[in-house]
Amino acid sequence: MRFENLYNFRDLGGPETGDGARVQPQRLYRSESVAYLSAADAARLVDEYGLATVVDLRGEREVARWGRGPLGDRPLRYVHVPITDVTRGEGSMSSYYIDMLVRRADDVVGLLRRLLEPGALPAVVHCEAGCDRTGVVAAAVLGLVGVPDEAIVADYDLTEPALAAMNARWKANYLARGNPPEKWIDEVWAERERAMVETIEAVRERWGGWVGWADAHGFTEQEREQLRKLLVE
Questions:
Q1: What is the bridge-based pairing of β-strands 28-31 and 10-11?
Q2: Structural domains of the chain, with CATH
Q3: Bridge-partner residues for 124, per DSSP?
Q4: Parallel, antiparallel, or unpaired: how do β-strands 28-31 and 77-80 relate?
């Protein structure tokens, strides 16, 4: 989906589930920060696509610095789930992702429950880049409705072509704050090359799969079935 100021926005609809059904288009989107939307694109999302809910995974400081953008002026549901106290540290990217699923499991489950509320869809889930935090949430949603591993990985990998444009934006913002250009370091995709593959393998090893993760953290079979009815044709 093409927008004036967003490079990493896409519809999670389209993939087939393991039983041959299909995730419905225009029900759930994933994105980099929607604070970058132009006014015209914000109007398009609401008026043309019927957007009802914005799920913001950014931290308080990110929201304070960059705001909510033009969607903040629209009468939409705003669900703030700041996944910020999980830092990557020295481990692999996949260990960072698993740490989110462990340490912020209650928040992710709470987010999923907000999507089950009447009138919550269509919704967009976003963080800053729409890659790591958003990628973990998107993988959990797709996994719980029965999308096969390879399709989850394929969706995750669609961020790679957007990374150059996002790096250019982040660098411009960094320099605009008076920072020295020689200290800027681009985000690279190489460290994410197998991140989602390894994350799915770790979910299977630790919990037996996405359903096991959900069971371990109180997201019930009835709730999973409700999620599937909302998202799967």
A1: antiparallel
A2: 10-217 (3.90.190.10)
A3: 29, 54
A4: unpaired
Distance CA 156, CA 158 (A): 5
pLDDT in tens, 124-178: 999 999 999 999 999 999 999 999 999 999 999 999 999 999 999 999 999 999 9
CA-to-CA distance for 130 and 138, rounded, in angstroms? 10
DSSP annotation of 11 reads E
Residues 53/79, Cβ–Cβ less than 8 Å = yes
- C-alpha span between 39 and 8 (Å, rounded): 17
Q: Distance between CA atoms of 67 and 26, rounded to whole angstroms?
A: 25
SS3 55: strand
- Comparing C-alpha atoms, which of 124, 137, 139 is closest to residue 34? 124
Residue closest to 103 by CA, chosen among 79, 136, 138: 136
Characterize the bridge pairing of strands 77-80 and 123-126.
unpaired
SS3 168: helix
Residues 66, 103: Cα–Cα separation, whole Å? 26
Residue type, 61: R
Cβ–Cβ < 8 Å for 133, 156: no
How far is it, in rounded angstroms, from Cα 231 to Cα 233?
Answer: 7
Task: Give the residue from 115, 147, 135 showing the smallest Cα distance to 211.
Answer: 147
> H helices of the chain, where?
39-43, 60-66, 93-103, 105-116, 133-144, 149-157, 163-176, 195-207, 210-216, 221-231
pTM > 0.85: yes or no: yes
| Rounded Cα–Cα distance for residues 189 and 191 (Å) | 5
